[in-house]
């Protein structure tokens, strides 16, 4: 499967659930990229703490937070 950048206007080509997207403004694209970058940095920092149930939960919550923030931007 080919990949598409999440901030690309062509992001519908590999998404079977959402069939239509609105075109994002440049500011919205930048905000989405910033949220994802910040989430990844935090996720990586948490992962560096080791392996435990608590670390797994923390990483899941970061992923969830990024998902909801991006959904807010793209809705």
Notable traits:
75 residues, mainly alpha, 2 helices, 0% strand
Notes on the structure:
By secondary structure, the chain is mainly α. Helices cover about 60% and strands about 0% of the residues. The chain contains 2 helices and no strands. It has helices at about 25-45, 55-75. Helix 1 runs antiparallel to helix 2. The two termini are about 25 Å apart. The mean pLDDT is about 90.
Structural class: mainly alpha
Number of helices: 2
Low-confidence stretches: none
**Percent of residues in helical segments?**
55-70%
What is the string of helix and strand elements?
HH
Instruction: Give the percentage of residues in beta strands.
Output: under 5%
Instruction: Summarize model confidence as the mean pLDDT.
Output: 88
Largest sheet: none
Gross morphology is elongated
How many whole angstroms does the radius of gyration measure?
A: 14 Å
Distance between the termini: 25 Å
**What is the total tally of β strands?**
0
Gist?
This protein is an all-alpha fold and 75 residues long.
Q: What is this structure's SSE topology?
A:
Elements (H helix, E strand, L loop, with lengths): L25 H22 L5 H22 L1
Helix pairs in contact: 1-2
């Amino acid at each position: 499967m080919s990949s598409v950048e999440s901030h690309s206007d062509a992001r519908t080509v590999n998404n079977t659930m959402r069939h239509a997207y609105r075109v994002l403004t440049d500011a919205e694209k930048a905000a989405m990229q910033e949220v994802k970058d910040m989430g990844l940095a935090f996720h990586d920092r948490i992962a560096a703490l080791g392996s435990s149930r608590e670390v797994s939960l923390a990483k899941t919550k970061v992923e969830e937070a990024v998902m909801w923030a991006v959904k807010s931007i793209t809705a």
